[in-house]
Amino acid sequence: MSSGQPQELTRSAFWKIAGQLLKLLRERHGWSYHELADRAGVTADLVVAYELARVRFPELEACWRITAALGLDLPTFLREVEKRAGVTLITGIRPFARGTQTRTKPIETPATEYDALSNFVRKSDAE
User: Number of C-alpha atoms within 13 angstroms, CB side, residue 19?
Assistant: First the structure.
């Protein structure tokens, strides 16, 4: 097994869960692919490709637009995906160090925003 395969499996698992969560949230709003695409300023084909995890490296701007159209902050969405998938895409990243100081923990999104997403997702899961 090459060293790239575990990372590729992690990436596949992550984006599969991300696609499932996008679909869940889109359906929760009662939107078609086209409705979400129009709101986000992307194509419906791109929404379908992201939901089905057909894109190996989704583009930042498109992900940001789609999550914003769904009323979500992108980092909050990505943390929820990490939690559900049980994997992270940033394993092994060494944070930038200025001088002798290094960041020991990630920048945090306000708890209220994360709680809002968690509550929204829990309601969707219950239905």
Answer: 19
Q: What are phi and psi of 96, to 5 degrees?
A: -60, 135
> What's the rounded Cα separation, in Å, for the pair 33 and 87?
27
The domains of the chain, with CATH numbers, are 4-126 (1.10.260.40)
Nearest by Cα to 22 from 13, 33, 12, 11: 33
- The per-residue pLDDT for range 83-105, each reduced to its tens digit, is 999 988 887 788 877 765 554 55
How far is residue 8 from each of residues 2, 5, 13, measured CA to CA in Å? 10, 5, 9
Asked if 71 and 26 touch (Cβ cutoff 8 Å), the reply is no
User: How does pLDDT run across 98-124, given as a tens digit for each residue?
Assistant: 765 554 555 555 666 667 677 777 776
Residues in the chain: 127
